[in-house]
Amino acid sequence: MPKQVFEKSEQVYLMEPQKRTIYEEEMQNLVNNLKDRTPRELTRQECIDSIRHLEKAKFEAQKKMYEFVRTQRVPPQMINAVI
């Protein structure tokens, strides 16, 4: 990735103070809610379901990015700058 694209993306994505604050607050709430939970072993079906859910979410995100690049006619490298 070109340095200019990386720097632009870094400035817009999570480096904007409002976005960064929201991200940090949500992550801290998540950590606080989950840190006292006892770990347990997942079943084979739970593992498969979680992977299926993750792959579906990744595919939906990919479709949204493709649609954005196609309709806005921007270079694919700039997608992070817009998100």
What gyration radius follows from the Cα positions, in whole Å?
A: 17 Å
Number of strands: 0
Largest sheet: none
SSE topology string: HHHH
What number is the mean pLDDT? Answer: 80
The helical percent reads: over 70%
Strand content: under 5%
| Secondary-structure content class | mainly alpha
Q: Give the overall shape.
A: flat
Distance between the first and last residues' Cα: 17 Å
The stretches of 5 or more residues where confidence is low (pLDDT under 50) are none
Number of helices: 4
Q: Could you describe the 3D structure shown?
A:
- The structure is a single chain.
- Helix content is 73%, strand content 0%.
- The chain is flat and about 45 Å long.
- The protein is mainly α and 83 residues long.
SSE inventory with pairings:
Elements lengths: L2 H10 L4 H18 L9 H29 L6 H4 L1
Key attributes of the depicted protein:
83 residues; mainly alpha; 4 helices
Concise summary:
By secondary structure, this protein is mainly α.
